[in-house]
Amino acid sequence: MFTHMHNWAEIRRRVLVDRQSKRSICREFDIHWDTLQKILLHDEPPGYRQARPRARPKLEPFLPILHQILQDDRKAPRKQRHTVRRLFQRLRDEYGYRGGLTMVQGVVQAWREGQAEAFLPLIHRPGDAQADFGRAVVDIAGHSSTAALFVMTLTHSDAIFCAVFPRECTLTFQEGHRLAFACFGGVPRRITYDNTRIAVARIIGQRGEGVTTEFLRLKSHYLFESHFCRVRSPNEKGHVESLLGYARRNFLVPVPEADSFAALNARLQQSCRGDLGRTTRGQSLTNGQLLERERGELLNLPEEPLSIRQVEAVRANSLSLVRFDRNDYSVPTRYAHRRLTVVADVERVRMETAGTIVADHTRCWDRCRTIFDPVHYLGLLERKPGALDFALPLEGWELPACFAALRRRLAEDHGPRGQIEYIRVLRLLERATLEELTAAVEQALRLEISAVDGVRLILEHRRDRPTAPLDLEGRPHLPRVSVPPPDLSGYRSLCGEAQP
């Protein structure tokens, strides 16, 4: 085909403007009559145009099978769907296809392009937000683990909030909302979610309708409107899907290290505030400036914070352990076999009875762990002192060196009973901190005191605060006050003393 653009334009000018004979043009430029007609019909070379689809005699009988496999693939896990090569192998080995791979590749590409879904751009109104959980690897106190990454975004201003938690659950879901609202300075009017089981109790039709009691409590406290995406339609919250990856790449690379989740979340909150200086494509204002404007559309924060807690009724077993969230926590042995109430939040696990806290532990987010407080078992050890060196709750309990020195002195001075005296000293931890008792034990050793009563007196004396002397400065009237001496004659008469 004649494709030289200069000659193309020259031929069109001569024929259409100068009215030169078409036959002479064909002779001069050595082109066919049909080629000349094509030049005169088109401003530029139209390229190759296929008159009809190319025949595929070898693949045509297998097209229904191929299309059915591709259709079934849409229900399969995304990472276990057929590649083009795997489709070719199956057609060849299972169905007797004798054609080539390229022909299969063209059919698969055309089918996937025809099945690809198109999406409508959505309006991002001020006050709208989207929330989701993702995953991120973090290093907390030297332990690397995959944490739950909570992200909430304001779609209008592109403001982002993120926080990491040990696990995705109702408590961390509520805590993420509380922290996000505090960071934004208000509550979004409408929040979009996927159909997470934390919020959706059941799915009706294509959307979550039956929400959980705890999600209703969250909504009732903050008064926002909720919206759930259609099942398997994450594009309806594409804003948070995109910024979740943005937060992971920009705030959590390299893998962050921190002493606790709270410390890491404080750093992430600083990163989110710093990100407000970013300008989104198509905007002339920074995200922070847009957020200041958007705050007028946010709901006010409630005066009282949401009570984020999980309450369960439990019973302590014979080992003075309470099971909660697949872990065992110790309580004082006097509460063994008794019913207690567990009140847990993101950081602490407390056991209560009749409104009194009987045990308080740092929450463990692992599984099948036992968390002991050695002090809980000292009362039982006083009755069974022979188990002091074999008690599992005391294994690994590292006490200052002065306690070992006191134990040796008590054994020397009291013989076999010295072990009971030592346990009684340890029981002072039920009312004092380890730092306070350590100072009292060190002073007792210096004073060569080897009795629990002596350590107790030292402890109580160190706790006493001397009364400050009365300062008369600034009270000029007090020195002029005169108090007459009391009359003690009646007292002396009762004592049989002579009157002066």
Description:
The protein has 500 residues and is an alpha/beta fold. It folds into five domains: 5-41; 60-108, no CATH class; 128-297, Ribonuclease H-like superfamily/Ribonuclease H (Nucleotidyltransferase, domain 5, 2-Layer Sandwich), CATH 3.30.420; 310-371, no CATH class; 378-462, no CATH class. 38% of the residues lie in helices and 17% in strands. It is built from 17 helices and 15 strands. It has helices at residues 5-16, 22-29, 33-41, 63-73, 84-95, 101-115, 170-184, 213-222, 238-251, 261-274, 287-294, 378-383, 401-414, 418-427, 434-446, 452-463, 489-495, and strands spanning 128-140, 143-154, 159-165, 190-193, 200-204, 207-211, 225-228, 257-258, 310-315, 321-324, 327-330, 339-344, 348-353, 356-362, 370-371. The strands form four sheets. Strands 1, 2, 3, 4, 7 and 8 form a six-stranded mixed beta sheet that branches. The chain has a four-stranded antiparallel beta sheet with strand order 9-12-13-14, with no helix packed on it. β10 (321-324) and β11 (327-330) form a beta hairpin. It is elongated. The N and C termini lie far apart (148 Å). This is Transposase. Residues 122-269 form the Integrase catalytic domain. Residues 468-500 are annotated as: Disordered. Pfam families: Mu-transpos_C_2. One of its GO terms (molecular function) is nucleic acid binding.
